[in-house]
Amino acid sequence: MDFLCLPQDPQWLTYNTGSTPVASWMRSVEYISKDYGIFSSTINQKRAVCARCFTQSRPAIIMIPARTTCPSGWTREYYGYLMASYEGYAHPSNYICVYYSPSYYTHSDPGQGGGLTFVNADCDGEGTIDECGTGEYVNNRQLTCVVCSR
């Protein structure tokens, strides 16, 4: 899996917070650095802060998880749901943003490929999303995403 920067103010579409047998989960990421002596010891096991860069001379495209709208000055290309392979699969997967009304091949056979499944907010147990405690993120709710250009 890759790492994603989550906003503190998620936006939602349709969701199902009931029992979901097949899912991938979104958790916080933190620095594990205490034994290296490179960073200050106060950063160890603290949540990582993300940054995005933009330059005027090159076009930029960004996928923002847990949002359906773009920052001011950006153009929304599409929005939908954050998806990845099922967490229990042996192979790694990247997060992707799938359009809220996806296309599909009508002649495809079910069960013949890898699976994309919704990424749910994980507010229970170890490594949970910090904003769960403030009520911004809701346990087991499917995360949205938006793709923006500038």
N- and C-termini, Cα separation: 26 Å
Q: What form results from the Cα inertia axes?
A: globular
| Helicity, as a percent range | under 10%
Task: Let me know the number of strands.
Answer: 6
Oligomeric description of these chains: single chain
Mean pLDDT: 78
Major pleated sheet:
6 strands, mixed
The Cα radius of gyration reads: 17 Å
Number of domains: 1
Low-confidence segments, given as residue ranges, are: none
Supply the helix-strand structural class.
mainly beta
Assess the beta-strand content as a share of residues.
Answer: 15-25%
Count helical runs.
0
The ordered string of helix (H) and strand (E) elements is EEEEEE
Features:
single chain, 150 residues, mainly beta, 0% helix, globular
Describe this structure in words.
This protein has one domain. By secondary structure, the chain is an all-beta fold. It has no helices and six strands. Helix content is 0%, strand content 22%.
Describe the structure in brief.
The chain contains no helices and 6 strands. By secondary structure, it is an all-beta fold.
Chain-wise SSE layout:
Blueprint: E1 24-26, E2 61-65, E3 75-84, E4 96-99, E5 117-121, E6 144-149
Parallel strand pairs: 1-5
Antiparallel strand pairs: 2-6, 3-4, 3-5, 3-6
